[in-house]
Specification:
Length: about 475
């Protein structure tokens, strides 16, 4: 017993020494960068802000107080410089994905395209999947989205003339779009008009855990243990939560690998044709469900709610839609792309409400790297703060906190290009550009047009703010609107 006690004391002592030495080395490595005092020695500052759902706002405050880049962890810097992010993400850059991405390995069996840290493997997998996401090699993308836009218009009509919380309705719509595009049929959230399987509530709870897991290696280690996975990870046999959605996806995937499988020219068929295994497709399915929903949902919600609160922008956009598209019943995506004001309404929404707040840390290369006179030592990591990047007054003007889409059309070519390149960082850039960007753009353009052509809408209570908690994504509710049919 005494021997065990001595071993335990020795182990704890070694761990303490390891932590102290590591903290001192990390402190010295980034000692020239300023930040919250606690952040110099640990990531507890991050942990506390994440738990409170205020991490993006806290990063903005740190950048304003200490300058950019600011130190927000013993080994972590945060920046509001879009040019630095593009430099880090550029093809050929020696910067690499950090351990943050290990938490994006949703399925313990295998990495997905977002969690893959090996550069060669990531390039190879992304190349295989690209034709399915950008629609180049499939013929079902726009028709699938159109079918669910029609269902969404029908869902809004069910609540016409009544106060409706728009936030969950949009989530149902995006989940059904995602499943139709990715798996060939909708989950059925809009048909049920309810949170099937308690999926949405479970997903909201999951995003907090995901943030803590991604930001802290100790939490990643704990949650990667087999016994924790067995107790807590979603399973296809679950009756509630994320598990039933996984089961839905796995069933769709298994049908493509069964003895009676027939080739189909859709996204899943594209993955099969490019040689992805059944397990790979199942892993990508989990990523699509978790990562492909909240981003599009946030942009669509905030665009419609911002229009409802800005009569001038609302009227200008409606006039453009009516003038360019007229009474045409069928509108294709190339037709919608003629709506220049709609484009900037969407991008201005993305600027003011960047949909994803994950740190997406990248590791400085061996020997470090210098950019714009700042040296980033080997072993340090850098994250971008979209909330700060998108509201820089030196880029977007003194009214950067206002919803004013015209700013993206103003100025000379150089200013317009700089502003658009900055906003586009919300979807990543270079070798880390988001694969789902094209799908999101079709979905957003066509849905906003459909809503504007079919309904008048207004805030139910302009004095009541939307409830918005920030755990890697916007968790929104009480986005109360009233829709009435256009005459």
């Amino acid at each position: 017993m005494a021997l065990l006690s001595r071993i335990a004391v020795a182990a704890v002592t070694l761990l303490a020494v390891y932590y102290i030495v590591g903290s001192v080395l990390s402190y010295r490595r980034l000692r020239l960068f300023k930040g919250p005092p606690l952040a110099s020695f640990s990531r507890f500052w991050l942990f506390w802000k994440e738990c409170r759902g205020t991490l993006p706002h806290a990063q903005v405050a740190a950048l304003e107080k200490y300058g950019s880049p600011a130190r927000i962890g013993h080994d972590l810097l945060v920046t509001d410089d879009a040019e630095l992010i593009r430099h880090i993400n550029a093809p050929g850059s020696r910067w690499t994905r950090s351990g943050w991405y290990d938490a994006m390995r949703m399925d313990p069996r295998q990495d997905n395209v977002f969690s893959t840290r090996n550069e060669e493997a990531h390039v190879d997998l992304k190349a295989k999947e690209a034709g399915g996401y950008n629609g180049r090699d499939i013929n079902t993308l726009e028709p699938d989205i159109d079918s669910q836009v029609g269902e969404f218009i029908g869902l809004i009509r069910k609540h016409e003339g009544k106060v409706v919380d728009f936030a969950p309705k949009v989530r149902y719509f995006v989940l059904d779009v995602l499943s139709t595009v990715a798996f060939g049929r909708p989950f059925g959230f809009m048909a049920a008009d309810e949170d099937k399987w308690d999926y949405c509530q479970t997903s909201d709870d999951f995003t907090l855990i995901l943030g803590l897991t991604a930001n802290h290696s100790s939490v990643r280690w704990l949650l990667s243990q087999d016994w924790v996975q067995a107790l807590a990870a979603p399973k296809t046999t679950d009756k509630h939560g994320i598990g039933p959605a996984l089961a839905f996806a796995h069933k769709a995937v298994s049908e493509r690998y069964g003895p009676d499988a027939k080739p189909r020219k859709d996204m899943l068929g594209h993955f099969v044709n490019k040689g992805l295994s059944q397990v790979q497709c199942e892993c990508e399915a989990f990523l699509q469900i978790m990562a492909g929903t909240d981003s599009s949902a946030t942009i669509l919600r905030c665009a419609i709610f911002s229009l409802a609160g800005n009569p001038r922008v609302y009227a200008k956009l409606r006039a453009e839609i009516d003038g360019v598209l007229g009474q045409n019943a069928s509108v294709r995506y190339p037709d919608v792309l003629k709506l220049e004001y709609l484009k900037v309404v969407i991008w201005e929404t993305i600027r003011l409400f960047p949909p994803l707040f994950g740190l997406k840390e990248k590791c400085a290369p061996v020997g470090g790297d210098e950019f714009n006179g700042v040296f980033y030592p080997e072993g340090s990591t850098v994250a971008g703060c979209d909330a700060a990047i998108m509201r820089r007054k030196d880029v977007f003007g003194d009214d950067a906190s206002f919803f004013r889409p015209e700013r993206l059309l103003e100025g000379d070519d150089a200013l317009r290009r700089k502003r658009m390149q900055t906003v586009e960082v919300a979807f990543g850039s270079g070798k880390y550009l988001c694969l789902g960007k094209h799908i999101a753009m079709i979905e957003l353009h066509k849905t906003i047009v459909a809503i504007m052509r079919n309904f008048d809408f207004a805030m139910a209570d302009p004095m009541r703010a939307v409830d918005d908690v920030l755990h890697n994504v916007h968790q929104q509710k009480n986005m109360n609107l009233v829709f009435t049919a256009r005459e």
